[in-house]
Each structure stands twice: as structure tokens, then as C-alpha cells.
Backbone:
């Protein structure tokens, strides 16, 4: 009997760790504008001017600050980025990456 209490505790600890591991990615996650900027520079800057320190992009692609100025809601932007766009390659962005990108783009509004 004296052995069963620590065992039960260990079981409980393991169970809680499992719950935490499963729940973490599901918990509300704050969109990260710094990550969004990194993704934008890596994946979007070949066409879009994505930040004020970038001088040149593809003339067909609107700058991110002009996108930020358009009255697109975060929801519209997220929906746009969730599907491949004819002139844009399919980037296969995750929901978190899209959230970070949209949060970053919105910091550029003038
Ligand atoms: C290969 C070039 C290219 C790349 C790379 C690219 N885009 Fe685009 N994007 C375009 C072009 C061109 C348009 C304009 C499409 C049009 O007018 O039909 C556009 C349009 C958009 C729009 C819509 C703007 C509006 O007002 O409707 C958003 C938002 C956008 N891009 C975000 C992104 C993001 C975020 C990335 C990086 C993950 C990215 N783009 C990467 C070329 C690109």
C-alpha cells in the first residue's frame, strides 16, 4: 500500500504533462509581429516591399504598407493567405504563420 501513493502521484504527473502537451498548441496564441516580419522578409520580399528598409519589389505586387492601408479586415487577409493566389506561389503557410503575417502587415498601416 505504501508503494501505491507515489505511483499514483507519478501517474497523475504524467497525465497532467500529457494534457498540457496536447492543450498547448490549442490554447489561444498571440500573433507574433516579429515572426511575421521574418516570414515576410523570407517569403514575400521577392515581390512585395515588406518593410520600410526595403527599396525595391516587383511592380505588380502592392507594398505591404499599401495593403495595410487598404480596408481589408484581418479576416479577409487571413482568408486571402489561406488559399493559393494565381500570381502568387502556393506558400503552404500554417495558420500561425498567417496570423503572424497579418499581425505584422497591420503594424505597417500609416
Ligand atoms: C511571386 C511574387 C509574389 C510573392 C512571393 C508573394 N506575392 Fe503577394 N501578391 C503578388 C502579386 C503580383 C499580387 C497582386 C495580385 C493581383 O493584383 O491580382 C499580390 C497580392 C497580395 C495580397 C493582396 C493585396 C490586395 O490588396 O488584395 C496580399 C495580402 C499578399 N499578396 C500577401 C503576400 C504575402 C503575405 C506573401 C508572403 C507569404 C506574398 N504575398 C508573396 C505577388 C507575390
Residues:
Amino acid at each position: 500500500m505504501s508503494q501505491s501513493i507515489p505511483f499514483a502521484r507519478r501517474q497523475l504527473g504524467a497525465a497532467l504533462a500529457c494534457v498540457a502537451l496536447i492543450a498547448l498548441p490549442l490554447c489561444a496564441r498571440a500573433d507574433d509581429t516579429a515572426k511575421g516580419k521574418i516570414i515576410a522578409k523570407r517569403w514575400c520580399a521577392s515581390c512585395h516591399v515588406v518593410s520600410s528598409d526595403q527599396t525595391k519589389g516587383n511592380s505588380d505586387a502592392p507594398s505591404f504598407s499599401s495593403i495595410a492601408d487598404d480596408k481589408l479586415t484581418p479576416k479577409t487577409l487571413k482568408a486571402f493567405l489561406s488559399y493559393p493566389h494565381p500570381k502568387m506561389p502556393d506558400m503552404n503557410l500554417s495558420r500561425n504563420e498567417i496570423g503572424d503575417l497579418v499581425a505584422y502587415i497591420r503594424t505597417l498601416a500609416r
